[in-house]
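Quick note —
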Amino acid sequence: MSAERLPEGALRRRADPAELGFATTAELEPLPALLGQARALEAIDFGVRMRGEGYNLFVLGPTGIGKRGLTRRVLGGRAAADPTPADWVYVHNFDEPLQPRALCLPPGQGPVLRRDMAELVDELGEALPALFEGEEYRARLQTLKAGFAQSEEARLATLRERARAVGIALLETDEGFTLVALQDGEPMPDSAFEALPPARRRALEISLADLRAALETELDAQPQQRRAYRERLRALKAGMARRVVEPRIGELRARYADCPGLPVYLDAVQADVLGHVDDFLPQEEDRIEPSRSHRYRVNVLVSRVPGCGAPLVFEDHPLHQSLLGRLEYLVEAGNLVTDFTLIRPGALHLANGGYLILEAAQLLGHPDAWDGLKRALRSAAIRVLAPGEVYGQVSTVSLDPEPIPLRLKVLLLGDAGLYELLCEQDPDFRALFKVCAPLEEDLPRTPESQRLYARLVATLVAGEGLKPFAAAAVARVIEEAARRAEDAERLSLHLGELVELLRETDFVAGEHGAAAVDAEAFTEALARRRRRRGLAGERVLEAIRRGTVLIDTAGCAIGQINGLAVFESGDARVGKPVRVTATARLGEGEVVDIEREAELGGPLHAKGVLILTSLLGARYAPDRPLSLRASLVLEQSYGPIEGDSASAAEFCALLSAIAEVPLRQSLAMTGSLNQHGRIQAIAAVNDKIEGFFAVCRQAGLDGSQGVVIPAANVQHLMLDPELVEAVATGRFHVYAVADVDEAIALLTGLEAGERGADGSFPLGSVNQRVEARLRTLALARQTGERRCGDDDADHRRQSRSAR
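Predicted structure written out below.
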């Protein structure tokens, strides 16, 4: 077989606007589901409906395919139809102040409870002072005070009478009580006391000692008696306050009777209010200190609108605190302080009862956040930690809020590499994310799928608020989608790139004042994009034009061929030719990969060289060792080289060097070689062809130039219309080859040659010349070895004679 020159129609599969069945996208119904993602939709549906531990999802797809939009669109309707989850609030724990309590309330009731508690405090702040200013309280307080005073005075009166009976007085001074002996009804001076007869003085001293002991006993009992008074006073206040507090809290208790935990909390509030009535009474400045009612506040952590459905939350900054909540601190007197009102929610709180979407790469960039998420999913609870606990540091005394039960679905968005890494490196990952939802990157291109793709374009156009697209413009979008898929038989589903292109096209049409977008606007938008991204390609062309990079597009040369390569430059992929050269001389069967020796060639490129070395020996020297030393290099490559797409061109250059047959420099070649001489498909075929076409167009198209590609890549061709037009007019050519014989015949203009019945190649064919040269090298090697052997023998004889 010979190389096939591809016709114009094989270079770009066009979309016929007439087959799409509409004039503009305004006539089309939007797609009810996402195009081409049935597998992913089925997985997502299963994951969100499946109950049980660990059925969270990993939505897998490359960047730009639209993972975020897909998940939001799929889950948006489902979330709206799901039950609305409960509100969650934190309140003061009267038994353990450092462990705030979490309370669950029906949707929308969190702010209501906060308002009710604030109104309760306000009402008590008005009602209690009024109550304690009333006559009843004053009378009962006066009775209590009088009773206490009378009781205390009665005990002191008894002690006074006892002292007077023995001639001693109990006096009250500024410093307290004292006992003194009396003389004529007046305190006895010290001199008089010393002048008393010893018996009398001794009797008074004993009496004074007894009375002092009795006085001390009485004074020691006073604190306890006063505590008893205060308790009775507190009981009086509580009893009076109960008349006001119980009815008001009773109303709240009845209102929230169906809320678990609320009645118990309200009982604790009532007990605390009755135990701290003074907090509601006027203080020294005749006002209530705000901090005195602080503990009755309600911190609404999460509140829902009743009937709004389940939450759908996308957290684009997944730090530990933004996921699991945080404690805030205030500075008071130089110290950091916090309380239950400073607990703040995280994304898990906000998404609880619904769905949380996270970018896996961003999440894994914060290991503490990833660990915190796993801990919450394993325990099915959200625990807010103090900063010191998050980072494993010793912290001062802080809060330990009651954990909140967690029930939600987490969806991680990431690519295949990240998914595989997590599966391999994190044993918890598979247990917590059991469902993988892989997104298709493209779909088969059929007349039906093209019409569906047009509806996808219409959906995106309407969603973005763009002008309607004419059928001809949509046909060009479909062709570009096939180009993006690198396959004429498939359509790319990278929605991010598609939306960008639609926006840019709409912008161009708007500049022209058009009411609808036509094909010309699309063509211009593509041209502008290529120009914006074309600096690197222009630099390549300039270097070739100026002779800095050596590329020939005419003539013939031995051991030299134009290969095709691509390189990435930012968001652009640039195709460029690269000169491949080969040399061959007598040696020991070694083919040297100079790129590999210089540590520029990657393992895939080295693999290609090893394959062509194996093919060379198997095809031309099956029954004897190779006797050459060959070298291969990609000239003027100054960076890493990877891939085996140059191996077919390298093999042709090597055959040219061995057979000393020149190759056409007007052609460039790409293709991967296998050990049987078949040329296999490669990637980025369109960019590679267009890269060489640009060089030839710059040098001047003379009708002899073209590219040689694997036949298996023909189905992938979606070439630029300008290149297609050049092929149609005969100024450029694209050839498809299936094996190396077809390629070498095209490149040399000679017959490649097949082995005949006698096992030999036709005389004058390229293969015969290669085999003949290898035989010559083998014979030369054998002759050289014999000559070296004779020289060694002569040397040994001369050595023996000398001895």
